[in-house]
Amino acid sequence: MAKRRTTVNIELNEKSKSISWENAIELFISSMKIKGLSYNTRRWYKENLIAIVKVLKVLGLELDPVLITESMVKEIVLKMVNSGLSSTTV
Known about the structure:
By secondary structure, the chain is mainly alpha-helical. It is built from three helices and no strands. Helix 1 packs antiparallel against helix 2 (39-59) and helix 2 (39-59) crosses helix 3. The protein starts with 20 loop residues before the first helix and ends in an 8-residue tail after the last helix.
């Protein structure tokens, strides 16, 4: 039996088509809860997403989650590795 992919509907502000990081993270964590993932797994993801937002601020990159690009994610990963985190942790 194939696994079903579930999606979370995100209500975006019609004018800016954006969502705050706080709302995006909470929606993601809620979808994980619905899927039955453990509290510790959800907490781990939430802590890591918050860390990513902090790195975005340090790098001065766009903070709107809708506008995050692949190159920004690569820059975040590089910053985290350069700050001493192991590649496994990142």
